[in-house]
Amino acid sequence: MDKDSASSGSGSQGPESPNPGWSIVSIILSGMLFWGGVGWLVDHLVGTEKVFLPIGIILGLVAALYLVYVRFGRDQ
Prior knowledge:
Blueprint: H1 3-7, H2 21-46, H3 52-73
Helix pairs in contact: 2-3
Transmembrane segments: 20-42, 51-72
Region (Disordered): 1-20
Keywords: Membrane, Transmembrane, Transmembrane helix
């Protein structure tokens, strides 16, 4: 099996995939949903109302944007 056929499978990910746009969108949404959920859970456990949820969403967005930059934005 040569290098081109091994990397062109349907499971390939990263900058070499034909359309990285869906990967970028899913990384951003996943980060916001996960860390927003963590913020909601902290709000629920601590007894606050809508304090940590927006903090979690913003933290997730920042972390996801950094991950997108590291994965797709750097020169290789």
